[in-house]
Amino acid sequence: MRASAVLAPLYEHDGEVHVVLTRRAQHLRSHRGEVSFPGGGRDPADADLWATALRESQEEIGLDPDLVSPIGELDHLQTVTSQSFIVPFVGVVPARPALVASPGEVELILHVPLRELLADGVYREELWGLTPLDRPIIFFELVGDTVWGATGAMLRNLLAIVTDTVS
Fold first, then answer.
1. Which residues contact 127 (CB under 8 A, 6 or more apart)?
2. Fewest CB atoms within 10 Å of the CB: 54, 62, 87, 133?
3. Coil, strand or helix: which one is 18?
4. What is the helix (H) or strand (E) element at residue 74, kind and residue range?
């Protein structure tokens, strides 16, 4: 099992809280074109998984780690397809960050208002697999993109905390 970390960067812009997501490059071996948080596997040089999340965010979207203040962790996940154990961190950035996608990993950087994620008709759940082994898969339908799977589950967890509802 590979230890991985992702960062859910939050910032306020024009009176609204936004989260930064990425659309992965089409040429990648796995999860190509999928929407995700910046992140990846822990390197031996990383002091801890928070350092992994910051390093990966800097590599993928050019987010200056000195701008990010940690505010917590979301529920840890284990993925079936990539055999990863993921620790999602939430960090606050003081303003809309100037970001640049690394073409080797990221096709597009998405700045998504939380309001959009909470809008009617954006969220849905499907059961995948055969009973009794079926499991819920989370989807968020954004304009031009579908967020699903592990990232969808992390977003649902984040939104449940932000709105003070049960995840």
1. 134, 135, 136, 137
2. 133
3. strand
4. none
Helix, coil or strand: residue 151:
helix
Q: What are the tens digits of pLDDT across the range 114-166?
A: 999 999 999 999 988 777 777 889 999 998 999 998 999 999 999 999 888 76
Contact of 67 with 94, CB cutoff 8 Å? yes
Domain extents in the chain: 2-115+149-163
Give 36: exposed, middle or buried? Use CB within 10 Å, 0-12, 13-18, 19+: buried
Query: Using CA atoms, how far apart are residues 107 and 140, in angstroms rounded to an integer?
Result: 19
CA 58 to chain centre: 14
Query: pTM for the whole thing?
Result: 0.91
Q: Which is nearest to 18 in space by CA: 93, 75, 68? A: 93
Superfamily of segment(s) 2-115+149-163? Nucleoside Triphosphate Pyrophosphohydrolase (3.90.79.10)
Do 53 and 39 form a contact (C-beta atoms < 8 A)?
yes
Contact 39, 5 (CB under 8 A): yes
50-74 per-position pLDDT tens digit: 999 999 999 999 999 999 999 999 9
β-strands 2-13, 84-92: how paired?
A: parallel
The residue written with tokens 């649902």 in the block is: 156
